[in-house]
């Protein structure tokens, strides 16, 4: 999910290297303090200045990261069923 935040920071005009460093630092802080990454991001100045709390929550919503995996699973199940018939 850090990757999504980094990409969005870049789209807000922060350089890729700087965005990467911001998220790297936030990730290490979250691990070191045993906190959720979203909480660390919410109080990181560069991230908090770029996104509302709602936008940040949407970036961390797992449902926004599954893409077409449901369709892929459905296709695989159908292929498996056809193969065993």
| CATH domain fold name | Ribonucleotide Reductase Protein R1, domain 1
What is the beta-strand fraction? under 5%
Helix/sheet category: mainly alpha
- Under the CATH scheme, the architecture is Orthogonal Bundle
**Structure summary, number of beta strands:** 0
**For the report, how would you describe the main beta sheet?**
none
Mean pLDDT: 92
Q: Any idea how many domains? A: 1
Shape: elongated
Tell me the CATH superfamily: Fumarase/aspartase (C-terminal domain)
State the distance separating the first and last CA atoms.
40 Å
User: What is the string of helix and strand elements?
Assistant: HHHHHH
Give the radius of gyration.
Answer: 18 Å
Helix content: over 70%
Count of DSSP H/I helices: 6
What would CATH call the class?
A: Mainly Alpha
Structure description:
The chain has 85 residues and is an all-alpha fold. It is built from 6 helices and no strands. It has one domain: Orthogonal Bundle (Ribonucleotide Reductase Protein R1, domain 1). Helix 1 runs antiparallel to helix 2 and helix 2 crosses helix 3. The longest helix has 18 residues. The radius of gyration is 18 Å and the shape is elongated. The termini are far apart.
């Amino acid at each position: 999910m850090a990757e999504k935040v980094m990409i969005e920071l870049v789209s807000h005009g922060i350089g890729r290297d700087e965005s990467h460093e911001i998220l790297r630092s936030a990730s290490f802080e979250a691990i070191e303090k045993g906190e959720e990454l979203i909480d660390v991001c919410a109080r990181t100045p560069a991230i908090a200045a770029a996104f509302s709390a709602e936008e940040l929550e949407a970036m961390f919503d797992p449902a926004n990261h599954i893409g077409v995996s449901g369709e892929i699973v459905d296709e695989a199940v159908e292929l498996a069923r056809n193969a065993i018939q």
